[in-house]
User: Which sequence fits this backbone?
């Protein structure tokens, strides 16, 4: 083997090692809280000092009922952790809209708010429904007394299981912006996904959500 060939071989070997290390680093979830049918995890992300969050639960209900609740933004202050206000800004299609939401932070931290583009898609074969939220910070003017979040990525993945059970997996990566230390954010961030998911399990059983039907969502047989 020539020197050049050996050099290329070692470069590729080193690159493979780095990629393997990166994959295991970002895939390693740590269980932080469990109870009332909900488990919450977090993990380090190489692109952020704030940890990514994941909440998992299973509910015997329909796919449409969960999507109906998730998109009923006016009710968020009643069941979403520290939500003070939430509403639709613009409906794009039946499966996509832009929403505003604020977060009431404990004193002396300033309140946060964000604007997101929310899309719902369903895999026609597996029937898995995915709702994604991407940040649109400049879609609305900034609000006095609030720090506008500019880095926000979230998703709900709803996977049909046997006997009418839906596996619900929520992932969130958000930079709260402003002067809040990352260690403080990571310390306090577990309760939000946990309490919100616990409340979701209760609220989705309300009659208005149980009766919800969407033409773009096919329910499992």
Assistant:
């Amino acid at each position: 083997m020539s020197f050049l060939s050996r050099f290329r071989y070692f470069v590729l070997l080193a690159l493979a090692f780095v990629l393997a290390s990166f994959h295991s680093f970002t895939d390693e979830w740590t269980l932080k809280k469990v109870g009332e049918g909900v488990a919450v995890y977090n993990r380090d992300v190489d692109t952020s000092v704030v940890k990514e969050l994941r909440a998992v639960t299973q509910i015997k209900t329909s796919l449409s009922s969960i999507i109906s609740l998730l998109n009923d933004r006016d009710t968020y202050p009643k069941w979403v952790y520290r939500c003070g206000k939430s509403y639709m800004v613009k409906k794009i299609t039946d499966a996509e809209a832009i929403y505003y939401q604020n977060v009431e932070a404990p004193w002396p931290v300033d309140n946060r708010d964000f604007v997101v583009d929310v899309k719902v898609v369903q895999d026609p074969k597996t029937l898995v429904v995915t709702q994604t939220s991407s940040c649109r910070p400049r879609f609305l003017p900034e609000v006095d007394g609030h720090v506008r979040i500019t880095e926000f990525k979230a998703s709900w993945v709803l996977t049909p299981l046997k006997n009418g059970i839906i596996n619900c997996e929520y992932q969130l990566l958000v930079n709260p912006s402003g002067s809040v230390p990352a260690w403080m954010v990571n310390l306090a961030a577990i309760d939000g996904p946990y309490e919100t998911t616990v409340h979701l399990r209760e609220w989705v059983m309300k009659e208005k959500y149980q009766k919800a039907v969407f033409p773009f969502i096919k329910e499992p047989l």
